[in-house]
User: Fold this.
Amino acid sequence: MNVPIQAQVLAGLLGLTTIAIGVYLPRWLARRSQRRTDPPRNADTARENP
Amino acid sequence: MNKPINRLPLPLPLRRLYRITSVVWTVYAAALALVTHGSVLLQAADPGRHVLTVLAGLAAVAMAVRTVYPGRPEWTRWTLPMMSGTSVAAFTLLLFAVDSAGGFTAGRIGFSLLVLTPGGIAYIHYLGEKAVVGR
Assistant:
């Protein structure tokens, strides 16, 4: 009746993944909303403002 | 000079709320540490459970500090993702331990889900603060 060390390592990795998602998901959401509020780039403005 | 938002003194009602929630979180974190230390099911999960006991104990100490100093939440904000990770890891360990202890019963399923709840709450709180409030 022993939990193998591989299972314990997997449990630890799941915990770390939870933390990583919690840290990076808000940043990704913020970048995504920033991209949506930025003015659209079109060919004319891209030529004038490279 | 404008202070950064996390350096502004918190208004009194918010400090009182933080003090109350800190007491709840101290109990929650201490409970998670006691479960990972003493649960009969997890006796089979050495040495992983000791790591989780230390992490949950750290969170309990940090929440006790926040009970005394509720006006400085930035000191202890790091405990939120740590509690969510510890809770998810403890839940996963419990699932493996239950599997090696003969299988699932209603009590074991309920106990495992109870161990997961601090993680769920901490996760929602942490994501909410970062994504909605922005700090």
In short: The radius of gyration of chain B is 17 Å.
